[in-house]
Fold this protein.
Amino acid sequence: MQQKKIKNYIKKNKVPLIIIICLILNIIMLLNYVIKINKPKSEFKEIKPLINFNKNIEIPKPKKIKVKNINPSIISDKTIYLTFDDGPSYLTETILDILKEENVPATFFVTSRQIDKYSNVIRRMYEENHTIGLHTSTHLYSYIYSSDENYFNDLNEIRMKVFNITGIKSRIIRLPGGSSNTISKKYNPGIMTRITNTLISNDFYYYDWNIDSEDASGSISKECIYQNVTNRIHNGTNIILMHDSSTKATTAEALQDIIKYAKANGYTFAKITKQTKQIHHHINN
Ligand SMILES: [Zn+2]
């Protein structure tokens, strides 16, 4: 009945069909617009779990930092990758000064613990051609290894902070304790296998180490750190585990001598990139 009335009206008033279609389309577009402007805007989409990890940063990029043409990576058949975990801290600048003086690159696996205080140091890392890797935000084993969701939320947090400071979306990861740590399974058996599989399937690259400076163990002298590193480096890839958290002053003290020894013995230095040969421990969970 209603349709007949409309038909008659159209016939009577000779309204062309095209105008009717246009009117309907306009109403649809207007409705879409109203729905869109009422939607709450989120600055950073959470990822649970890590699906489409790379597509979800939507906050505006910070001002671009110009990378200086210094500290070049030189890959040879005796390459050293210096890696520093748990920073930044007040010691990180000292380490950056030494790296600059020696003209060698390094890789920093950062946490959020003091990142707001040292955001200028993070900027400097990037500006001076080092790799900024992600080590999780809190580094709290009891939290990050209690569920997959906690781990990836925590990783997202540090990833977002690094992005906010530098504009880079780092895909280079180091798991707290390494992938072979024996603690994560106490919080959630099998979690290390699941985390590493999710990382790999989302094009993230995790790096353990094959040379331990042992600077994580209590108070260790700079001589000991020097011996541990220089006695263990060998032909091929050397990924050296060190720390730049605030209690690791002896690491900073040993660094320059380690670099000088390595240079004198034909080693070259490089930063970790996606192309670097991955050193993975045996997963223990
Ligand atoms: Zn750590």
